[in-house]
Amino acid sequence: MPGAELPAVPGVLTGAQTLATAESIAAAQESDGAIPWFPGGHTDPWDHVESAMALTVAGLLTEARAAYEWSARTQRPDGSWPSQFRCGAIEIADADTNFCAYIATGVWHYVRCTGDRDFAARLWPTVRAAIDHVLTLQGPRGEIYWLRTDSEILPEALLTGSSSMFHSIRCALALAEFLDIDQPEWEVAALRLGHAIRHHPEAFALKDRYSMDWYYPVLCGAFRGAAAEARIAARWDDFVVGDIGIRCVGDRPWVTGAETCELALALDTVGDRDRARDLLAAMQHLRAEDGSYWTGLVFADGKHWPEERTTWTGAAMILAADALTRTSGGNGVFRELAATADMSTGFACDCVSTLS
Prior knowledge:
Helices cover 51% and strands 9% of the residues. By secondary structure, it is an alpha+beta fold. It has a single domain (15-354), classed as Glycosyltransferase (Alpha/alpha barrel). Strands 7-8-9-10-11 form a 5-stranded antiparallel β-sheet. Helix 2 (45-57) packs antiparallel against helix 3 and helix 4 runs parallel beside helix 6 (159-178). The longest helix is centred in the middle third of the chain and has 20 residues, at 159-178. The radius of gyration is 19 Å and the shape is globular. The two termini are 19 Å apart.
């Protein structure tokens, strides 16, 4: 997609600024394709994919493909990934199921942006193995346990991670449909997981201090319509801080850029585009001169923290800008599935027909 149109939000962000942010992500990419949190930092499989998605939106397809090829090469035979790498070496071997599932979101997003059927077919075995692995950790109520070590499965499910996996499984199903492959067992697993998220809060560890547990079930489509709007309204004042963004943790004076952009994406899925745009504008104080973004601001003392500027913060910003401007073919990767999923009968996705 050389010369691709770039997301630009009037009064908030120009296309040139979007490209600068994408280039700051590409500058951190290592020679093997891994995208760490910052140059010299560690790489985790989830944030690596998020950054690859942003590169795709910006038309940096060579770099994006290198990122997905890294994912395919580093996947273990059981379909999982170590949860942390550094400079090409495994730093934490334990497998985080949400980290593993997110490859499906990334690959489906790339296909939505490019229509590249060959890429879809080439990455399908990686996606299939990842989702099959994740579903071996599905619990009795439909929740998915979040951690597997060499010796055990931790029998604990996290609402944010399970919500993200709900979306990733549905992206995997959309990819399967695009490739004319039936995966009925995945449909059943996704239905069970969505039901658990909506109706069995007791299945998940209590983490409601964190804003992600508030908006992720909306962002990822488990809550829709009036239920989604009510969920957002219920804790808006707990997390949204004036015109500077949203708190990561409800009882800490710290706003973070990625969470602010993800909430903007969640609002976009329910049609609340005005407040979504306001949030995207609110986090721009975190932008550095080179287009990268500070992770967050401790507003009690006006200091950026952590000290590093993270690739995934810039990536979340690009994805939010793309969703709001409807620019790339992948701009609706969250909105489309939230709008088309039928929670009672299956996962028909009208967006597949536009690529077939």
